[in-house]
């Protein structure tokens, strides 16, 4: 299969993945795409960097679709292979370009971080919460080690790191609220949510509603974390910001508004009871 045929097959599989009614066809097509790109890179002497990158993308997308269709174990296997190939792509980009914020380096690192974050969420769906946290830590570590602190990274890497910190806050919060955590989880979750907030505030653009949705979603998580560490005043400030953004989103902000209402109840209960008592909260992701 030639390069143009592989590209056309990839795009067809991606298009079929956009609607649930065509997921079965997409599943079959992604298997063909993966096979085609595996064949293309089988000989390392003639393998093209673009084909290797497309293989990683195909494995990642097929793994995400497998998890969405109720096969998280298969999704984990595919996702792990995708991360390995993305690591190779990122290593090659580092050799070719010393500037961590250059478009090629930014794209390679952002995709590696994103694939690792998505693998973490697949692990959670597969009933492996500890693996989820380990993978999120790995995603953050590779971002920091490769590009340094996020403000100095490229825009796509900063976006991916914002998601990684947001998901880390969620994971630590879940572990704390389900009673399976160490005592520092609530504070660590608040720190992760703070870092996600900082990154997403800098990326927020009214012309891109998704960036506003993501920031509002992080505010909802951050407010819950602040309630759990008894920082009531800051939690109220975060709630005001979150409610303002969620209101701008209209119907698209309804889910986040629900999370903010849960956070608001947590904050007011904390304010009424003082900071000296522990409370076992209900979990709302």
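-> sequence recovered:
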């Amino acid at each position: 299969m030639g390069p143009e045929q592989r590209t056309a097959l990839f795009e067809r599989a991606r298009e079929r993945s956009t609607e649930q009614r065509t997921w079965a066809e997409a599943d079959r097509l992604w298997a063909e795409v993966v096979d085609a790109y595996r064949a293309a890179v089988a000989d390392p002497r003639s393998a093209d960097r673009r084909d290797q990158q497309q293989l990683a993308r195909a494995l990642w997308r097929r793994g995400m679709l497998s998890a969405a269709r109720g096969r998280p174990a298969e999704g984990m296997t595919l996702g792990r292979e995708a991360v390995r190939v993305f690591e190779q792509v990122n290593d090659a980009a580092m050799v070719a370009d010393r500037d961590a914020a250059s478009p090629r380096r930014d794209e390679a690192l952002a995709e590696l971080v994103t694939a690792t974050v998505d693998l973490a969420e697949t692990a959670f769906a597969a009933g492996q919460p500890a693996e989820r946290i380990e993978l999120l830590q790995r995603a953050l570590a590779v971002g920091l080690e490769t590009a340094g602190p996020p403000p100095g990274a490229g825009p796509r890497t900063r976006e991916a790191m914002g998601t990684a910190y947001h998901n880390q806050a969620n994971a630590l919060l879940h572990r704390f609220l389900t009673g399976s955590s160490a005592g520092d989880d609530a504070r660590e979750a608040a720190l992760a949510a703070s870092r996600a907030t900082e990154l997403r505030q800098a990326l927020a653009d009214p012309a891109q509603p998704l960036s506003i949705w993501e920031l509002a979603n992080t505010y909802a998580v951050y407010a819950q974390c602040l309630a759990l560490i008894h920082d009531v005043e800051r939690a109220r400030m975060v709630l005001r910001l979150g409610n303002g953004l969620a209101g701008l989103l209209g119907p698209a902000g309804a889910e986040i508004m629900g999370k903010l209402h849960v956070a608001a109840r947590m904050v007011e209960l904390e304010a009424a009871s003082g900071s000296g008592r522990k409370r076992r909260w209900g979990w709302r992701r």
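The radius of gyration is 20 Å.
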